[in-house]
């Protein structure tokens, strides 16, 4: 079953879309939509090019980055990730972000899943990859990135998850994936 087969009776049709904001990372629109029952409703939509997230495994450890996130006001422990640039393939973004954030390259990187972060109001689709057989080199951070590299033994992941050390959804999905495939 696919997400688009035989579900036409659930689709909404965008009748009018007004751009409210267009920034470096997101665009926001107010949309008037025609509902399946013929009524009209309003939607606020955050448009995003998507992102990649990478499960980086090396010598029985998983690699994370610790960085401050302004929207949460917290320092968050996350798997390496980054925004897919316009006209950039997610596979290329994954390789680029792995090198930028933890200074790693991999001859064995593959896509696992795609998932929406908040489909009720945002179009952001995350492409989750796993990189094994990584080779560590130097980080290549962008000028506005400040983060620490953290490596956690695979044997400690469950305990760290249960203690609530991971508060980021993509990271929790990644850790659950690793725990279910150990």
From TrEMBL:
**GO MF, one example:** hydrolase activity
Cofactor(s) this protein cannot do without: Mg(2+)
Asked if the record carries the keyword Magnesium, the reply is: no
Q: Which InterPro entries does the UniProt record give?
A: NUDIX_hydrolase-like_dom_sf (IPR015797), NUDIX_hydrolase_dom (IPR000086)
Q: Which UniProt keywords apply?
A: Hydrolase
Which is a Gene Ontology cellular component entry for this protein? cytosol
> What SUPFAM superfamilies does this protein map onto?
Nudix
Q: Which GO terms describe its biological process?
A: nucleoside phosphate metabolic process; ribose phosphate metabolic process
What PANTHER family does this protein map onto? Answer: NUDIX HYDROLASE DOMAIN-CONTAINING PROTEIN, UDP/ADP-SUGAR PYROPHOSPHATASE
Pfam family, any one: NUDIX
**Name used for this protein in its record:** ADP-ribose pyrophosphatase
Native organism is: Lacicoccus qingdaonensis
Q: Where is the Nudix hydrolase domain?
A: 47-174
């Amino acid at each position: 079953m696919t997400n688009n087969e035989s579900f036409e009776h659930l689709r909404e049709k965008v009748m009018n879309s007004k751009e409210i904001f267009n920034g470096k990372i997101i665009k926001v629109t107010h949309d008037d939509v025609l509902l399946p029952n013929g009524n009209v409703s309003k939607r606020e939509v955050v448009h995003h090019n998507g992102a990649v997230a990478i499960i980086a495994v090396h010598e029985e450890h998983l690699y994370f980055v610790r960085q401050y996130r302004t929207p949460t006001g917290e320092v968050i422990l996350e798997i390496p990730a980054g925004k897919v640039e316009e006209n950039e393939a997610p596979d290329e973004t994954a390789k680029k972000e792995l090198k930028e954030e933890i200074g790693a390259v991999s001859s064995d990187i593959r896509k696992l899943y795609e998932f929406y972060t908040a489909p009720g109001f945002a179009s952001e689709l995350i492409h989750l990859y796993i990189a094994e057989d990584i080779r560590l080199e130097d980080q290549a951070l962008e000028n506005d990135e400040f983060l620490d590299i953290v490596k956690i033994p695979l044997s400690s992941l469950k305990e760290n998850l249960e203690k609530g050390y991971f508060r980021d959804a993509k990271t929790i999905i990644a850790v659950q994936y690793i725990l279910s495939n150990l």
